[in-house]
């Protein structure tokens, strides 16, 4: 990691909020469990506020984790939510900075987690601001997901408004909060039984909440499981998921796949992150099974290159058996990112200059290179075998014994 963006890049914008979320949740749980308070802020902040901060701190931690899921997809709304939640987590950490006494544990300084929470929250905020341009995708909800959200929200509003209007016909239901609580536990089929309908009208209404609520929860669950199933199908077909693609930076794009690509993949493995773009489904599946990042698509199209992070790529390699296809892929890559280093392998010698004109910075002809080594070695030129061995990373056991 020799550049600042390696430390403050996409991975930092994911990792730091995750750490803040965990610390916020732990700090909240510690303060919720406390039976007594002392310390520098214990006398300044009322106990009710500290308990509320503990509860909301745990909720903030959970919400941050949900935002991180959106950050992995580079959603702009997730970036805004994280930027808002990080200062909230810092404030909650300050409020909870005191020593607490927990049953069965004893005196525990919540500052042990609240101070790191404040520091990490403040550190994460500049990182998020520096990487704002990365999170430029609008939220893209399918029709089914929009319908699921509308159904769930509508059933909750219906249940809350109806039960509050009929509050006199329910036991222990008198406020709007009670009405929402009743609707939530009824629709989710939890049913604590602490609030029950007493009249026929209230019972009929309660049954309608059960039917509408459970149906809306089921639809919402289906819309959440759909992307997970799609992910499994993508992996089975040899595709990287959007979440995996969004975290790529300083990587190498290998455009296409052929006989020349296999040794390139072997050299890249373990050296740097790389993505292979190939239209061959069987090849993509085989590479995926070898834990190689692959995207099943036309390597000369703009969309798959953009999905594979051509803007943040360190280099592009085009080395298939089809020079015409390589030239088209190189031209597209050079158009999308004029500053990226493009290396091409020419199958035919006469295509070397054509690949350069297409935008390749370096063009190597394996056939010409191999032919040169063979001829020079046949003519008795010394050192040719050593050069070939070095290129192929072959150790000469006979020379080692000598």
From TrEMBL:
Q: Does the keyword Transmembrane apply?
A: yes
Q: Name one GO biological process term.
A: monoatomic ion transmembrane transport
Describe the location of the RCK N-terminal domain by residue ranges: 249-365
What InterPro entries does the annotation carry?
K_chnl_dom, NAD(P)-bd_dom_sf, RCK_N, Trk_Ktr_HKT_K-transport
The record's section on PROSITE patterns has: RCK_N
- Location in the cell: Cell membrane
Give the record's membrane topology: Multi-pass membrane protein
Gene Ontology cellular component? plasma membrane
The portions of this protein that span the membrane are 12-37, 49-70, 77-95, 101-125, 146-166, 204-225
Alphabetic keyword roster: Ion channel, Ion transport, Membrane, Transmembrane, Transmembrane helix, Transport
Q: What is this protein called?
A: Potassium channel protein
């Amino acid at each position: 990691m020799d550049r600042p963006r390696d430390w403050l890049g996409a991975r930092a914008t994911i990792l730091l909020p995750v750490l803040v979320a965990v610390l916020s949740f732990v700090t909240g749980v510690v303060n919720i469990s406390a039976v007594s308070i002392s310390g520098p802020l214990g006398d300044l902040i009322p106990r009710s506020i500290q308990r509320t901060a503990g509860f909301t701190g745990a909720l903030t931690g959970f919400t941050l984790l949900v935002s991180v899921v959106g950050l992995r997809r580079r959603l702009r709304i997730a970036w805004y939510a994280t930027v808002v939640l990080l200062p909230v987590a810092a404030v909650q950490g300050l409020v909870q900075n005191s020593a607490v006494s927990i049953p069965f544990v004893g005196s525990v300084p919540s500052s042990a987690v609240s101070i790191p929470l404040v520091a990490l929250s403040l550190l994460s905020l500049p990182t998020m601001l520096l990487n704002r341009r990365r999170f430029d995708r609008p939220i893209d909800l399918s029709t089914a997901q929009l319908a699921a959200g509308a159904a769930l929200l509508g059933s909750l509003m219906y249940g809350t408004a109806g039960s509050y209007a009929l509050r006199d016909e329910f036991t222990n239901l008198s406020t709007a909060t009670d009405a929402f609580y009743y609707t939530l536990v009824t629709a989710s089929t939890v049913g604590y039984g602490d609030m029950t309908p007493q009249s026929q009208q209230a019972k009929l209404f309660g049954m309608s909440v059960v039917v509408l609520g459970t149906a809306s929860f089921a639809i919402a669950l289906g819309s959440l499981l759909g992307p997970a199933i799609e992910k499994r199908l993508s992996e089975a077909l040899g595709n990287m998921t959007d979440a995996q693609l969004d975290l790529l930076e300083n990587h190498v794009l290998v455009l296409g796949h052929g006989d020349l690509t296999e040794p390139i993949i072997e050299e890249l493995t373990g050296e740097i992150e790389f993505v292979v773009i190939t239209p061959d489904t069987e090849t993509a599946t085989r590479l995926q099974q070898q834990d190689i990042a692959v995207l099943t698509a036309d390597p000369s199209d703009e969309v798959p290159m953009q999905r594979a992070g051509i803007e943040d790529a360190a280099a592009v390699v085009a080395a298939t058996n089809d020079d015409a296809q390589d030239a088209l892929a190189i031209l597209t890559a050079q158009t999308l990112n004029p500053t990226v280093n493009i290396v091409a392998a020419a199958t035919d010698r006469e295509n070397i200059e054509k690949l350069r004109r297409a935008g390749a910075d370096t063009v190597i002809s394996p056939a010409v290179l191999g032919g040169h080594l063979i001829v020079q070695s046949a003519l008795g030129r010394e050192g040719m075998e050593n050069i070939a061995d070095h290129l192929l990373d072959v150790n000469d056991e006979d020379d080692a014994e000598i």
